[in-house]
Amino acid sequence: MFIIEITYRVDLTEIDAHMAAHMTYLRKHYAAGTFVVSGRQIPRKGGVILALGKTRAELEAIVAEDPFHRHALADFRIIEFRASQHVKGLDALLAAEVAAKR
Question: Is the domain 2-101 a CATH 3.40.50.1380 member?
Answer without folding.
Answer: no
